[in-house]
């Protein structure tokens, strides 16, 4: 008995990686450059995927500079795009001991809603150890479920 042969199409994964200063300015720049890179990959400004990715990068970068900042250390943004399949957003910082959790804040709390936004927008998200030091917060978008992907 022979097993049926299935052919899989080759996928070129595009990757963008950049380090930014752990400042609010660095977080804003990370979002702007991410949107610019997505546009270069033919995920145009204003599209559903671009807007969602921009929000995710903004939240993860803001968390990295607010909660993961170590003086003199940068944070890193990596985008990995598999056309028509997925977009992975990784934001890494050097504070491995401060791991985020999505906990519903109290009604009078001024913060704590950012990861609820990440959970609502991303297909999945996780916190990973970063070698040699730190952590990476990863958010993935499943593009096969989006209708506006070229």
How would you characterize the overall build of this protein?
The model has no long low-confidence stretch (mean pLDDT 85). It is built from three helices and five strands. It has 150 residues and is of the alpha+beta class. It has a five-stranded antiparallel beta sheet, with helices on one face. A hairpin with a 5-residue loop joins strand 4 and strand 5.
Summarize the helix and strand pattern as letters.
EHHEEHEE
Shape: globular
Largest sheet: 5 strands, antiparallel
Q: What's the total count of β strands?
A: 5
| Spatial order of the strands forming the largest sheet | 1-2-3-5-4
Structural class: alpha+beta
Helix content: 25-40%
Q: Gap between N and C termini, in Å?
A: 40 Å
**Uncertain spans:** none
| Number of H- or I-type helical stretches | 3
Report the radius of gyration as a whole number of Å: 17 Å
The fraction of residues assigned to DSSP E strands is 15-25%
Arithmetic mean pLDDT? 85
